[in-house]
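# nightly structure sweep
# worker-07 picked up a monomer target from the shared queue
# config: single-sequence mode, recycle default, output format = structure tokens
# input follows
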Amino acid sequence: MMCFYCGTPRGVGVSTICIKALLCVSMLLVVSRTEARTWNILVDGTGDAPTIQAGIDSSGAGDVVLVHSGTYFENIDFLGKDIVVRSQTGPQGTVIDGSGNEDSVVGFVSGEPESARLEGFTIQGGVGRRLPERTSRAGGGILIIDSSPVIEGNIIRDNTTGAGAGWGGGLLMDSSRYDIEFPTPWIVNNVFERNRSTINGGGISATGVRSRVERNVFRENEARFDGGGMYVSMDGVGSIEIRNNQFWENVAGDHGGGIEFGRQGQSEPVLLEFNLFVRNAAHGNDGASDNGTGGAVSMRGWEGTLRNNTFADNRGTGGNGCTGGGILLVGGSREVLVENNLFYASAGCGIVCRALEGAEGATLKNNLFWSNAPYDINQPPECTIGTIENNLFDVDPLLCGPEMDNYTVSNQSPALAANPPIGVWTNPGCGDGVPVESTTWGRIKTRFRSN
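# output follows
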């Protein structure tokens, strides 16, 4: 390409030369902007930029900020940019520690698009951000407001929402405006571990978004009130699909040890399918007056489908012996379809309904119940579930090894013989109900449904 100097040679019109020069510069700028760059970040500061945030500051659309192994004591913000921030070696070797500031570790608060991605880090030490329009902290580890990033392959652990009121210990996603298109964050293949919220949503708090939460592991997260693993409260806007996740030993002080579905309003029905819930607990902070808690799932005011989930050893406590160890349906939840789920050893009953307005629309179909105490299903006089059909009661599912945290089923399991199959796994994990070897956490993860 030949470029022209914008001067005034004798006998030549100024406009002709200048137009050619400007066209040349414009073409060069277009070329440079389409060539994505990789910014290498090194922990000793000798990379292409001295810090992760400096790499973000310098990057342009389509660039990759590639972070090499080490622990980076930073709090970063994507600044609305269409970029990828990725670790070179994965979350075990690359840590972003935000404990040096009272803030979220990672912020997406400037309308980041779906092509913005955070991949392969351990995110720890955050206490959340106090937003101008809020009185509480939000998003200890990751804060997503009016943005649609992909959060993939990270370990989000040991974050809180500070000493005061706060939502979303591990991650908060929300929209501050309902007159714009809903944000569509995608949360996939992460581990949420030991995050704490001082109000709701120990692992994740989700409001006002259209989100997918898929193939994540939630372990030992805690909320002071509702939603130890997740808190979902769309309040009339947004939707969520929660598929192929694992919830282990999350705790809610009040409702929804694994997940609390709070206010729905006119939001789209929820979809909860192919998830594993093990040893989650909800304790009913309201005391003796609280007769429904939902050890694994609390559904208060929602419509939706709960399909092919496995609930094992979950516990609901409160002012009643039947508080919903597996699922609590309460407060306007109607048109709820609970089908093809496996309920094993729930404490506080398998399924409980309380004050279920319009309960005639609730359907329990093709589920398997075994060893739930004191009952599989509890329906007080004011709460009669509409349809209960084709369920298997007091039928041993022949789990491969629950004492070793192996909740797959044997090739002889009635859960596999059902049509369609019941629970998370549609293929056997062992033969004849007897495990052939010790089952580790890693083996459980490889057996877990990943589609």
